Amino acid sequence: MRFAGVGLTRDGYRIAVLDTAVSRPATVEVYEHCVLERPVARLVELAQLAPDGFAVVVDSGNGIFDGSLAAAGVTVFRADPPVLTDGRVTAEALAELGRSRPEALVALGSGGWTMSGREEGITAAERASGPVERRLAAEGRLLLGGPVRRTEADGGAAGTGAGSAPMVALTFDDGPDPEFTPQVLDVLRRYDAPAAFFCIGLHVLAHPGVVRRTAAEGHTLGNHSWSHAYLPDLGPIGLREQLGHTSEALAEAAGLDGPVAWLRPPYGGRSPELLDTVADLGLTTVLWDVETNDWALPGPEVIAERVFRQVRPGSVVLMHDGGGDRAQTVAALPTVITGLRERGYRLVGLGELLAARVPAGRGVGT
Predict the structure, then answer these.
(1) CATH for 66
(2) Which of the four pLDDT bands, split at 50, 70 and 90, describes residue 162?
(3) Per the residue annotation, which of 203, 224, 228, 320 is the catalytic one?
């Protein structure tokens, strides 16, 4: 039986392979500045070449491998923080866990998701975050979807600027993708609609030109971590790397003068401590209240219908431009844009929506 651990670096991916039948050190391969498909293809190849069995070990800081590998029939296990000695998540450490403690790992099924089996703890952490979310939202350091705070007494109709239609923000996660992000951008340009794109750092590294176009066309860029990590699991060093590496890659790709101001935690994963830490780092957390579940490929009509059913003034709509086949999202987007406008909504950027949500007398970001 062979176990491959997948680790991440500032420049890409690291694969370490150990054989349970021998005691030799791990065989290590490095993939830098490349698309995700290359290391995935190599892991699939290694699985096919292993007559006695093969499995890949990832951790909750790496949510971009398991789906592709499972779809290709490769066995995937997740190592959770309690079994990671000193929080080590190197490729070698993960492979060694497979060889020495396979019973401590969590098997990820082909129809599951990266954090499968931890739903109860995740829900409890999100519930506990409520008071911090409300405090940060009032301070302009967290954006929630839903009714805004400004009233007519503050100089504008509730949920709007003076005389304008109710606001809605469109957001896209998990890009940039070389095929689907440009298609989303084409639709947005055709309908003169703004949006925000929350990018995975490793994808930014592989597709900087897509990021450059996104910024040049006036859309908002946001941080979605380096590897689609469940951020509450990370210690200070891991969090700084996940967010810092992504910020640096975005700034370099888009030619920005400074770091992006927005963060969306993968899976919406949060805890009170994480939210405060992110705010202290100068980032505004962006959540959502309109969930399309477009990643499940329900069909373009269903995606649009879910938007119209859930939307309300001040909503933040979650869709995806990366992480898989997003043709249905692209097909649904013209209907979503025109349908929202027909219903009296005005599509705005995150900054405008946040400004309308902050109580009178408190500046955004203060």
Answers:
(1) 3.30.420
(2) very low
(3) 320
